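FW: tagging you since you asked about this chain on Friday. Here's the raw sequence from the shared folder, copied in full. Didn't touch anything.
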Amino acid sequence: MEELCTYETLSQRIKMIKALARSKKSELFSNCYFLPDGFKGLIGEHRLFFEEEKGNLYLFVKEETFFRLYYYIQDEETVRPLTTSAPIETELLFRGELTEKQKKEAALIQQLGFSLGRKSGRMVQKASEVSMQEGHLNNLNIRIDFATIEEEEIIYHMLWSTFLPLFSFLPDKEILKRQIEKKNILTLHLSGEMIGLLNMEQSKKNVWIRHLMVKEEHQGTGLGAILVNQYHMLWRDKVESFMHWVNLENASAIRLYQKAGYHFDGTKSDSYILST
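HL: got it, structure written out here
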């Protein structure tokens, strides 16, 4: 695994692989749906590494405790298991059911040594269809506000003790600080204690929930719905739609979002894991 130093080098490698696939009239498999331009920032942060084998390119994004894999595979015959010193996660994004090509891609991912870890679905709601519930903060013991830098350590601990790093895009402390400064995190306080949070991210005309949690002892009390409602109030006039990825086995989360007006849009993600 080598570090990629320039975006130009990466672009040239990708162009060569695409040209090779065209010349051989072979199928090209890639999960780089949105990231080619995003790779620029990762290179600047020294977080993007690569391996290349017989015309297949494997890109590794370094996270706090693992790597995320993105790939360009044009030669199925040369796919071999990857070796790793840290866990690696990769995903296959699709709509409805897997196409025949996507089934081949899933098989290639497993040839690389990965096993299926989680199945997720995307839930959406148009901003114009959001149903607001005014007056939900009349309880003076409840406070929802943007996170502050002084709360960084508490938020970091809550995120990392609640979510699985391999599936959750958990921020390191530097990224978390930027998220707080950009007002991307709402915190939920009950009688002065932080008991929940919502981490969001805007993408063009949409806004996404990255993380939503309420401490276990306060779950089932409606506080999660109150937090989501406040989030809707903040963003409904600024975006076209709200989105969220949810674990298809997390029935309680699905119910919460459905009650808030979300529905599955047919887009799914299978997350695969390669352990050390």
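FW: The chain has a mean pLDDT of 89.
HL: agreed, and The CA atoms of residues 178 and 184 lie 9 Å apart.
FW: great, closing this out.
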